[in-house]
Amino acid sequence: RVAFPGRRATVTRALTRATETGAVRLTRRRHRVRGYRRARDGAGDEGSQGKGEGRGQTAVTMGAVGNASPGGGSLLMAVFYGIAYLTAASTIILLNKHVLSVTPFHYPIALASLGVLFGWVASVILVHTGAISLEKHKDITLSSWLKNVLPIGFFTGVTLATGNMAYFYLSLSFLQMAKALSPVALFFVLTITGLDRFHMSVFISVMVIVFGAAVAAYAEVHFTWIGIGLVVTAESFEALKSAAFQFLLANKSFSMWEGMYFVSPASLIFLGIAIYTMELQEMIEEDAWGQMKAHPLIFIACGTLGFAVNYCSLGVIKNAGSLTLKVLAQMKSILIIFAGIAIYSDVVSLQTAMGYATSIVGFGFYNYAKIKAKEEDDKLAAEEGGEKGGEEAGYGSTKK
Question: Which of 143, 262, 315, 378 is most buried (CB neighbours < 10 A)?
Answer without folding.
Answer: 262
